[in-house]
Amino acid sequence: MNILEIVKYGNPVLRTKGARVAAITDEIKTLAADMVETMHAANGVGLAAQQVGQAIQLAVVDVAGVDDRPSALRVNGAEVNIDEWMPLTLINPELDLSKDKVPGDEGCLSFPEISGGVLRSVKINVKAQLLDGREVQFEAEGFLARAIQHEVDHLNGILFIDRMNSATKASLSGRLKRLQKQA
Ligand SMILES: [Zn+2]
Predict the structure, then answer these.
(1) Is 151 a catalytic residue?
(2) Is residue 159 one of the residues assigned to a domain?
(3) Which of 18, 66, 104, 172 could form a disulfide with 155 if both were Cys (CB 3.0 to 4.6 A apart)?
(4) 182 falls in which pLDDT band (50, 70, 90)?
(5) CA distance readout (Å), 159 to 7, 94, 95, 144, 148
(6) What's the pLDDT score for residue 14?
(7) Does residue 76 lie in a domain region?
């Protein structure tokens, strides 16, 4: 497996909507495995294909071991052990968001040393394909729901700074400009 280079803010691929993954080829499987390896090496909880330079509908998430921010996962209505489902590879995911939202701090591997509060839905319904081709539907809550919303935004070319309120964004503007210049 390979550790991939993580694309930083300012690179246009981060603003590109991902194309649907038509078939789960060996190439896709290798990319997903490399993305998991890269996410773990960077101590991240999620990584989207755009962040390794590929605009396709593929993201990985791993919230196992995050104990200070609780999550819940229900598959077919039944609560499951989250650790057994991590790392989770989501292909062509579609989200249904709850109306109730909650603020929370987020970071992003494409924005080193930047974090800020983002309002996200508390609960989401997810329809996606897994790496083995299986179609799954599940409900996620809490930190896992937040992580998936952040990653699915990436797949659509949306970044967490787009979701911050203007005061938060203004407070980060100097650092964001510096990041963009380095890109
Ligand atoms: Zn991110």
Answers:
(1) yes
(2) yes
(3) 18
(4) confident
(5) 13, 17, 16, 17, 13
(6) 98
(7) yes
